[in-house]
Amino acid sequence: MPLQTVEPQRLYRQIAEQLRGLIGGGEFPAGSRLPAERDLAKQLGVSRPSVREALIAMEVEGWVEVRTGSGVYVLERSARNAAATPISTEWGPLELIRARRVVEGEIACLAATQAKRRDIASMRLAIEQMQSDADAGLMPIDGDRAFHSAIVHACGNNVLIETVHSFWDSRRGPLFERLVGHFETLKSWQSAIDEHHAIFEAICAHDAATARAAMHKHMDKAHARFSASWRRAKTA
Question: Which tens digit of pLDDT belongs to each residue from 171-215?
């Protein structure tokens, strides 16, 4: 029998595999509620964000159901059999936000020193698009992407441009979309728009340090919004 290629598993996949094994072994029967994230994180020796990513993956795959205001419940086997193909390669959404904090913080810093009038105009237009969509009751994802894209284009570095675009492409994956479905609201988007204004103002002022700090704050706030208690989902 020929050897098969060995691929490293993402941490959230390893956590999900353990939980699936416990469910399959009857430790958590159908209809039962899983332990709280903090308890699972403590028992597994991992962070709560990693546990959250694992639970979201299991929800996408049909193993569990997240019930807002209550918890995470094990589904019947028939629901799992009808679920989507297991996720194996997608970046964890919360891990992605942490990576964006590092990379896009420096990009904002660089943009503050290099942005030209056309770049500033593109950023302003993107924020206006975000606000217009939010006022119309629409999630302003297109304007959000346009804003971050305008910032990185101001740097004039194709590697950075492609990197940021790859970050955004990952938002189209089922894990990120499911997390968004639980926690993004027009209220949370308005907070994000305000955070974008702070980044924009720093770049307009050519204040590199403040631009970096504003981007870091934006990413920290985004991470916090997606890390809120399940009981606060759609209310924060």
Answer: 888 888 888 888 888 899 999 999 999 999 999 999 999 999 999
Half-sphere exposure of 90 (CA within 13 A, CB side): 23
**Is the distance from CB of 93 to CB of 56 less than 8 angstroms?**
yes
Q: How far apart are CA 10 and CA 50, in angstroms?
A: 10
Q: What top-level class would CATH report for the domain 11-81?
A: mainly alpha
Q: Is the dihedral of CA 45, 46, 51, 54 positive or negative?
A: negative
Torsion of CA 61, 46, 96, 163, to 10 degrees: -110
pLDDT tens, residue by residue, 64-102: 998 877 889 999 876 555 555 555 567 888 999 999 999
d(CA 211, CA 213): 5
User: Which of 80, 70, 108, 67 lies closest to 16, judged by CA?
Assistant: 80
DSSP-derived secondary structure for 67-94: ETTTEEEEPPHHHHHTSPPPP-SPPPHH
Q: Which fold has domain 93-232?
A: Four Helix Bundle (Hemerythrin (Met), subunit A) (1.20.120)
The sign of the torsion formed by the CA atoms of 23, 73, 86, 170 equals negative
* 126: Cβ contacts below 8 Å, ≥ 6 apart: 143, 144, 146, 147, 149, 150
C-alpha 74/C-alpha 184 separation (Å) is 24
